[in-house]
């Protein structure tokens, strides 16, 4: 009996050793909540681990709205250690709920003051800007004879009936920045009027902010309201799309990072936040986003207009964060579920 | 034995009864502010004092009623209650707050709860540190809100409509298919039977994805819809028919194959025309099978979440509402309310079905002669054509998914590529999800088979503790009527509570295994019971009289006799664990992401090709396991089932 068991014992020993050596590599595990696009996640973790191999990241990724809702729901019993890559408006909410741990990361002084929590020490720090963009499928539009829209107002033209996809603001941060930017651009009343008209042209509301552009790229619907990273990426993948930045200006938000109050891994969390605003990280953000939080690093992105920075609206984050719940409720009442298939 | 029965009873109670009870109680919980029991006084410079309740101040500041406000946010900062809160009011000297509420919400100053029943004075510039927190109360407010919110309540009608349509189509189609298999001499019966069962091997999300590629706005066959959109009830019904078809087929095939040939002989003697034989002999004979199939299909459709999630568009149904409430808005209480609404039709269908099955038993007498179909060229070839069309549809949907998963950029670049299999670049957790799914399926199959078979053994073979056995039998039948979404949600409530000592399994593979075993318990249990019923009850008495321990009969006789059934249970659990979404979608953690859930998340993010690729990986895995199961089954048949020959 003992002889037959021996190989197993050896195997078990080897497994134990392997396990130990792996454990030695990953001394700390961080649960990181994020809305960063899935196709970037692996690269983010890899770059970070190149500098800090002793910290392992377990991602919990979902759309901005869902991660926000999840964090709020877990407020009394937080599961996350760090939030890395979530809309700043969401982090402002977390701050108001007292869920964030103030921390001044290394290199904070290099950050453009617009891209950080004004409190000292700040409770969150910005990473990059992500902004709305429209993906317009030229092939399908050609078949249907749809003109190229130039502005948000153009999208309410009845010629686009059923041809537009946009993200549901209740789950998607991109959807929310669209809605909050329209309310700021056209005024509260005008904004809802605009959305009423736009609603007539919407084919479907999606769960994620990426999906509209991907669907437009695949020609499922000719027009997708999405954001610039996904638009540039979809175009690079070979989709016959034109990227439209509406002339009224586009809504935007920051991606930001913060430490969750009460994390048992405070030191590792601080290391991650230090790195999240490092120059290396900023270069990495710039691969997808045209504007990053440290000035003088970003290179312009292919496929986006040169004056993209000027197209960003004068965003009132306080308004967006503080009225978030009310806006979402109103939106849901007006458009969610009411729309039966046409 | 008594101890063993107790263990099984405890398992079923903890894994089923308690979570459900917790969920029911949760559905009556509302978050609310103590609007009436907190008083706030504002002291002005001139010594005058304005005292009002929190509710009065809140109403003036535009905060909705106590429950609605708590639904929006769990806290109200005190400053925002007073006019001009952003520019401090210089005529006010101080505030005083009286807190009379403990349970249903509190008032906090500097993150500490204010003492009860005591006026506390707060200097003007510190009012910013006062916050009112929502608490929990019990009421039917959630139900009232559900019924009065059209976006939610419409789902009831939508769900019923879709389920009824699907039931009508599936049962009709499956009846034709089963008829061809049992009542004709058409060629390739074996192949058709296999193909008809294929949809069991794929997650219900996959037919939705296939239909998008076939009938979506860029679909190959979109013109066949004549301008109708696939995103909505049409798509839901089509995909639901696909995935419920095998379930109906199995039940109806069984019902048709137990008919009595003497009735047909009588009909022939009486020169009844074929159609009359069909209406007066064939259909009534299969009546209970048809009823049973109809209720199974109805329940599957109304409780399924994968199909409407992928292809439902803006057409809301109950199962998706639960997902939206829980995952999308983290509104667990409303999720619980919708769950209970969803339980009603499922439980009704279950009860009616049990009733129908019970009556069916009496149909066959021991003198019945099995019916053997005679060759009939016209009928045989017609049915062959029919089965060929249905099979082509089934395989066509799968082939479309596979093709879409291999295309570089649908529909503009049809060059083949493997890049969509690089799951690490897509949502859903990458290849690790696939490995996790295999782990889950193996654990579920091994542990589940053990637990379920032992439980069935106790219920079926032990001749004592009748009331205990009846209770366990009842619990074992329950999972059939519990939709996966409901089970998963009830697990959150039960296991995620810090007060529960079993809290440690939350977020681990263990909770996924337990929920999956419980979710698929009933069918596996019935399979085991049926196998055990074939054994003469005297085995145990004989062994007892020979003074042999029960375990010995169990190991030497029971297990070998039941090996085919045990293998069937094993593969049933494995396949379902690979494809399940609904119960586990609330329970997976960053370390235990699953392939089937990855399909859902990829679809959500618009990564359709990757979703199709992952769905097909699940299909191939199940296919391979099926083939292995078949091989092992043959081997076992030869080695342990010799006693069946000649019996």
TrEMBL record, chain A:
Protein name: Iron(III) transport system substrate-binding protein
Signal peptide boundaries: 1-26
InterPro entries on file: ABC_2-AEP-bd, Ferric-bd
Molecular function GO labels: metal ion binding; thiamine binding; thiamine pyrophosphate binding
Recorded superkingdom: Bacteria
Entries under PANTHER family matching the protein: ABC TRANSPORTER SUBSTRATE-BINDING PROTEIN (PTHR30006:SF2), THIAMINE-BINDING PERIPLASMIC PROTEIN-RELATED (PTHR30006)
Residues engaged in binding Fe cation: 229
SUPFAM superfamilies: Periplasmic binding protein-like II
Keyword set, alphabetical order: Iron, Metal-binding, Signal
GO biological process, any: thiamine transport
Cellular compartments per GO CC: outer membrane-bounded periplasmic space
């Amino acid at each position: 009996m003992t002889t037959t068991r021996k190989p197993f014992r050896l195997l078990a020993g080897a497994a134990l050793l392997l396990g130990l050596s792996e454990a030695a590599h990953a001394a700390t595990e961080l649960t990181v909540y994020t809305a960063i696009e899935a196709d970037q996640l692996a690269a983010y973790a890899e770059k970070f681990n190149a500098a800090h191999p002793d910290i392992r990241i377990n991602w919990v990724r979902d759309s901005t709205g869902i991660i926000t809702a999840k964090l709020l729901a877990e407020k009394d019993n937080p599961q996350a250690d760090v939030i890395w890559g979530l809309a700043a408006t969401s982090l402002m909410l977390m701050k108001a709920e007292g869920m964030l741990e103030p921390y001044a990361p290394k290199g904070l002084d290099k950050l453009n003051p617009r891209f950080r929590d004004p409190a000292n020490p700040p409770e969150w720090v910005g990473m990059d800007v992500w902004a709305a963009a429209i993906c317009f499928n030229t092939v399908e539009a050609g078949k249907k004879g749809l003109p190229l829209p130039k502005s948000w107002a153009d999208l309410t033209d009845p010629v686009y009936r059923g041809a537009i996809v946009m993200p549901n603001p209740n789950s998607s941060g991109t959807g929310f920045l669209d809605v909050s930017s329209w309310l700021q651009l056209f005024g509260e009343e005008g904004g809802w009027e605009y959305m009423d008209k736009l609603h007539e042209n919407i084919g479907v509301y999606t769960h994620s902010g990426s999906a509209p552009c991907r669907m437009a790229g695949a020609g499922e619907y000719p027009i997708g309201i999405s954001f610039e990273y996904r638009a540039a990426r979809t175009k690079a993948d070979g989709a016959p799309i034109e990227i439209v930045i509406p002339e009224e200006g586009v809504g935007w938000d920051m991606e930001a990072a913060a430490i969750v109050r009460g994390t048992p891994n405070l030191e590792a969390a601080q290391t991650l936040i230090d790195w999240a605003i490092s120059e290396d990280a900023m270069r990495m953000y710039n691969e997808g986003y045209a504007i990053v939080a440290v000035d003088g690093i970003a290179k312009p992105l292919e496929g986006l207009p040169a004056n993209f920075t000027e197209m960003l609206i004068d965003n009132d984050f306080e308004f967006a964060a503080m009225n978030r719940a009310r806006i979402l409720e109103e939106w849901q009442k007006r458009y969610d579920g009411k729309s039966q298939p046409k | 034995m008594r101890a063993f029965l107790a263990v099984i009873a405890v398992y079923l109670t903890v894994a089923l009864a308690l979570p459900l009870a917790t969920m029911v109680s949760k559905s009556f919980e509302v978050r609310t502010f103590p609007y009436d029991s907190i008083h706030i006084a504002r002291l002005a410079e001139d010594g005058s004092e304005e005292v009002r309740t929190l509710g009065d101040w809140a109403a003036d500041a535009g905060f909705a009623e106590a429950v609605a406000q708590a639904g929006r946010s769990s806290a109200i900062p005190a400053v925002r209650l007073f006019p001009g809160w952003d520019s401090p009011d210089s005529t006010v000297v101080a505030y005083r707050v009286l807190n009379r509420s403990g349970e249903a919400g509190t008032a906090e100053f500097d993150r500490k709860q204010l003492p009860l029943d005591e006026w506390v004075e707060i200097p003007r510039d510190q009012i910013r540190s006062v916050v009112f927190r929502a608490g929990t109360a019990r009421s039917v407010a959630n139900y009232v809100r559900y019924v009065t919110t059209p976006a939610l309540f419409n789902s009831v009608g939508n769900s019923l409509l879709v389920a009824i349509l699907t039931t009508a189509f599936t049962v009709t189609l499956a009846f034709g298919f089963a008829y061809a298999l049992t009542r004709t001499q058409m060629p390739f019966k074996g192949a058709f039977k296999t193909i008809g069962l294929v949809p069991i091997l794929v997650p219900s999300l996959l037919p939705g994805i296939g239909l998008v590629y076939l009938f979506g706005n860029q679909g190959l066959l979109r013109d066949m819809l004549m301008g109708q959109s696939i995103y909505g009830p049409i798509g839901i019904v089509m995909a639901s028919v696909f995935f419920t078809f095998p379930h109906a087929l199995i039940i109806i095939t069984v019902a048709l194959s137990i008919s009595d040939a003497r009735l047909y002989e009588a009909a022939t003697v009486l020169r009844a025309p074929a159609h009359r034989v069909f209406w007066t002999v064939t259909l009534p004979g299969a009546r209970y099978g048809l009823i049973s199939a109809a209720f199974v299909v109805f329940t599957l459709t109304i409780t399924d979440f994968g199909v409407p999630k992928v292809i439902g568009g803006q057409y809301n149904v109950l199962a998706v509402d639960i997902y939206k409430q829980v995952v999308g808005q983290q509104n667990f209480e409303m999720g619980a309310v919708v769950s209970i609404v969803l339980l009603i039709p499922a439980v009704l269908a279950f009860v009616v079905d049990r009733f129908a099955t019970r009556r069916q038993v009496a149909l066959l007498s021991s003198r019945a002669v099995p019916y053997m179909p005679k060759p009939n060229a016209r009928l045989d070839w017609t049915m062959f054509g029919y089965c060929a069309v249905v099979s082509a549809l089934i395989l066509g949907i799968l082939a479309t998914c596979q093709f879409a998963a291999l295309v570089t950029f649908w529909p503009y670049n049809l060059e083949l590529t493997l890049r969509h299999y690089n799951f690490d670049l897509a949502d859903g957790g990458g290849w690790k999800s696939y490995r996790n799914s295999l782990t889950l399926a193996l654990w579920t199959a091994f542990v589940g088979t053990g637990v379920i078979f032992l439980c069935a053994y106790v219920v079926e073979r032990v001749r004592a503790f009748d009331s205990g056995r009846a209770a366990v039998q009842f619990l074992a039948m329950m999972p059939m009527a519990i939709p996966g979404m409901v089970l998963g949600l009830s697990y959150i409530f039960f296991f995620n509570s810090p007060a529960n000592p079993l809290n440690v399994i939350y977020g681990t593979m263990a909770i996924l295994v337990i929920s999956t075993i419980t979710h698929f318990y009933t069918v596996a249990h019935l399979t085991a019971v049926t196998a055990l019923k074939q054994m003469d009850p005297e085995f145990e008495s004989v062994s007892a009289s020979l003074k042999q321990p029960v375990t010995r009969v169990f190991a030497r006789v029971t297990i070998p006799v039941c090996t085919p059934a045990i293998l069937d249970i094993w593969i049933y659990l494995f396949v379902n664990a690979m494809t399940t979404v609904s119960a586990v979608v609330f329970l997976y953690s960053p370390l235990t992401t699953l392939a089937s859930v990855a399909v859902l998340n990829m679809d959500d993010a618009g990564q359709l090709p990757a979703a199709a690729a992952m769905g097909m990986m699940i299909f191939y895995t199940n296919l391979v396991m099926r083939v292995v199961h078949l091989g092992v089954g043959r081997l076992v048949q030869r080695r342990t089932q010799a006693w069946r020959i000649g019996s």
